[in-house]
Amino acid sequence: MGSLAKTSCLGSTVMRALLCLVAAAILALQAGTARAEMPADSWPNRAITWVVPFGAGGVTDLVSRKIAELLRTRLGQPVVVENRPGAGGTIGTEFVARAQPDGYTVLYASGGPMTIQPNLGMTKLNYDPLKSYVHVRGVSSSNQILVATAAAPYNTLAEFVAYAKANPDKVNFGSPGPGTAQHLAGEMFQAAAGIKLTHVPYKSGSSQMTDMMSGILDVSFDYLTVLRPLIDTGKVKVLGTTGAARMAALPDAPTVLEAGYPDAVNAGATWVSLPAGTDPKIVSKLSDALAAVLADPGIAADLAANGQISIADKGPAELVPFIVEETARNKRVIERAGIGEK
Fold it and tell me: Domain for residue 342, yes or no?
């Protein structure tokens, strides 16, 4: 058609002029159709980079690798996990915000960089949790566990609160650092229970747990994957969890809600996001693929074993209000406790 158009346009008659216009219109239509078919219609046709903004070996990394493997089978292309840890998860999170919005760089997002860090003012963030991303589908929600040193003179939440009230400022709790989810859990609980605890921040969770076992720390909030070995060996004892419902992996542990502290209920969440500007067709394809993958019995079993529950029912429409609500909740805790930038 291209050569015919060029030949026909050499003449000067009205008929040939009309032929030129028709040929040009056909060429434009063909070019537009080719553009419409690329790149969203052919996505994915090469490897996808799955960015985890935390180090290898943690629960976020391990679960994400299993999801990535199932996505590879479902999408027919490699899904390569790339760990980009640092600065509380903000480095990897920012990396995806700056990536091309072509569907080939995916973020395994989490509450820390998205709903806590923006409220702290401790680090300049070069991304906006709502404007820099398209949030695709929820993955998991994780309650924290309140544990005490094995020798502590309390065995239940009620006994712990009574002891803390009788000993104000003498009971300490540890966290991996200021503004972490574990720190916020402690602040929420003491505010809800009307007690005063002393926060002891650490630079690493391993140092924190070493001090827990030695009795230097009184209590700590953390996730099951970190605490399970210590719980199973009796090095710490469980007082309760921060959930609204009991944890399947610890069915005997009561919740803060059961204990009468609804304002202490909290959970960390993970979900999948793409850079802002990604074609809606790609977003829809990835969202549907994730929904199918997260329905896999193996993924559900892994989440339960790690003290997590699926939030795969949250698609693009549900995730934005969820993130807004979580951000506002964390902001209230941070401002009340005076955490972050002064």
Answer: no
Direct distance between the N- and C-terminal alpha carbons of the chain, in angstroms, rounded to an integer: 69
Sequence-distant (6+) residues with CB within 8 A of 31 are none
10-residue mean pLDDT profile of the chain (342 residues): values are: 45 51 51 54 97 84 90 96 92 97 97 94 89 97 95 96 93 91 95 95 82 92 92 96 94 96 94 98 97 94 91 96 96 90 52
In this structure, is residue 40 part of a structural domain?
Answer: no
Contact 135, 109 (CB under 8 A): yes
Domain boundary residue among 264, 289, 304? Answer: 264
Q: Do 264 and 192 meet the contact criterion of CB atoms below 8 Å apart?
A: yes
DSSP code of 132? S
Say whether 108 sits in a helix, a strand or coil. Answer: strand
Residue type, 331: K
Q: Please give the full DSSP string across 5-72, using - where no structure is assigned.
A: HHHHTTS-SHHHHHHHHHHHHHHHHHHHHHHHTSSGGG--SS-EEEEESS-TTSHHHHHHHHHHHHHH
Contacts of 35 (CB under 8 A, 6+ apart): none
Per-residue burial over 102-132, b = 16 or more CB atoms within 10 Å of its CB, e = otherwise: bbbbbbbbbbbbbbbbbbbebbebebebeeb
Q: Considering its fold, how many domains does the chain have in total?
A: 3
Expressed as residue numbers, the domain containing 29 is: 2-35
Among all chains, which residue has been given the structure tokens 């346009």?
Answer: 9
- What pLDDT score was predicted for residue 24? 53
DSSP output for 80-97: EEEE---GGGHHHHHHHH
Instruction: With residue 274 as reference, give the H or E element that holds it.
Output: strand 267-275
Q: What is the pLDDT of residue 26?
A: 53
How many C-beta atoms lie closer than 10 Å to residue 67's C-beta?
Answer: 23
Cis peptide before 153 (omega within 30 of 0): no
Q: 264, 280, 297 — which closes off a domain? A: 264
